[in-house]
Amino acid sequence: MKKYPKETAVGVFVFLGLLAIVYMSIKLGDVQMFSDSHYHVKASFNDVTGLREKSPVEMMGVPIGFVDKIELDLKNQKAVLTLSIEKRIELLDDAIASVKTSGLIGDKYVKITPGGVGDPIEPGGIIIETESAIDIEDLISKYVFGKV
Questions:
Q1: DSSP letter string, 64-105
Q2: For residue range 47-74, what is the model confidence (pLDDT) as tens digits?
Q3: Order of strands across the sheet with 56-59?
């Protein structure tokens, strides 16, 4: 008797299992392969303490992208963020980017306050108006030691 039908069934089952693992890894890992549904803009901040790559970018409480890269500009002494924004969202050059905290001690994210009358920011452009993160620990230590 030949065992080819059993071996073939096992092979197909293993192949389908591997496909399922790859699919779930891509979906759960939020990997964007071969996708050009986002464009990049840069923003410079004095302080981005607690912000990480892949942190969300929100506008009016709705996620519109993520932080793609965090770099240090030693010449200007700034932290430069590269933000990946959905193409369906058009940012204007008078938009304001702020580093905010979810709740009192939650994760950091970038909040975009939309502009009203400016020109559209082109892909690769710069958001000029920024607001850095508020350091809660620094505020508490100033209050405790009477420096407020």
A1: EEEEEEEEEETTTTEEEEEEEEETT---BTT-EEEEEESTTT
A2: 998 899 999 999 999 999 999 999 999 9
A3: 126-127, 38-45, 78-86, 62-73, 56-59, 108-113, 96-101, 129-131
> Beta strands 62-73 and 78-86: pairing type?
antiparallel
C-alpha of 15 from chain center = 34
- Whether the CB-CB separation of 59 and 114 falls below 8 Å is answered with yes
Torsion over CA of 8, 10, 12 and 17, rounded to 10 degrees?
-170
Q: Which residue has the tokens 């890894």?
A: 25
pLDDT at 117: 85
Query: pTM score, two decimals?
Result: 0.72
Q: What is the pLDDT of residues 76-95, one digit of tens each?
A: 999 999 999 999 999 998 99
- Round to whole Å and give the CA distance between 125 and 106: 29
H helix or E strand, kind and range, residue 144 = helix 136-144
